[in-house]
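Changelog note: in this version the structure field was regenerated for every chain. One regenerated record is shown below for reference.
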Amino acid sequence: MDFNVWLTFTIATFLICFSPGPNMLHMMKSGAHYGMKRTLYSMLGCFLAVSILIGTSIAGIGALLLTSPPAV
């Protein structure tokens, strides 16, 4: 996969994931109920989950492009 395509995909995915949505609502709720220190663990968990999803998406798109020559 071309580096520019990968970089564009990664940036777009991070922007979509960090826009207000379920993860942000979860962080606000955790922060209000449990405080900042315990919310950091929730933030780390959400970040790791998003990172795993991005990694598997990139691997899947790369495999798809490799098996489909007309898509390149």
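Spot check on this record: Residues 3-71 form one domain. The mean pLDDT is 82.
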